[in-house]
Amino acid sequence: MVLLLSFDLPRNTKQERKQANLYRKRLVELGFSMKQFSLYEREVLSINTKNKLIQTLNEEIPDAGLITLYLLPDEVNDKQVTILGKNAPHYTIGRPRLIVF
């Protein structure tokens, strides 16, 4: 299954932009890959891992932030279609640097 994460963090002040950037870096450390600027995804293999990720995200979100999570079963994610333009960047999905048990 895939955990799809959408978030909205304020970016009006320099401090808010810094917090938002640190949070995006943290998502990558937790094994998420960026699909769009505020849309990230990560494959999760167990409910326990999903629950630990949700707990971590809840503890670390900036005070004015909003996160929406979608748990997509493999059947839905396997039917995903991505269309790239001629000059679109191609990303390689890496392994998470932090494993949550």
Automatic annotation (TrEMBL):
Keyword set, alphabetical order: Antiviral defense, Endonuclease, Hydrolase, Magnesium, Metal-binding, Nuclease
Family of this protein: Belongs to the CRISPR-associated endoribonuclease Cas2 protein family.
A GO term, aspect molecular function: hydrolase activity
Quaternary structure and partners: Homodimer, forms a heterotetramer with a Cas1 homodimer.
Entry EC number(s): 3.1.-.-
Biological function: CRISPR (clustered regularly interspaced short palindromic repeat), is an adaptive immune system that provides protection against mobile genetic elements (viruses, transposable elements and conjugative plasmids). CRISPR clusters contain sequences complementary to antecedent mobile elements and target invading nucleic acids. CRISPR clusters are transcribed and processed into CRISPR RNA (crRNA). Functions as a ssRNA-specific endoribonuclease. Involved in the integration of spacer DNA into the CRISPR cassette.
InterPro entries: CRISPR_associated_Cas2, Virulence_VapD/CRISPR_Cas2
GO BP terms, alphabetized: defense response to virus; maintenance of CRISPR repeat elements
Binding site for Mg(2+): D8
TM helices/strands, residue ranges: none
Superkingdom of origin organism: Bacteria
Stated name of the protein: CRISPR-associated endoribonuclease Cas2
Cofactor(s) of this protein: Mg(2+)
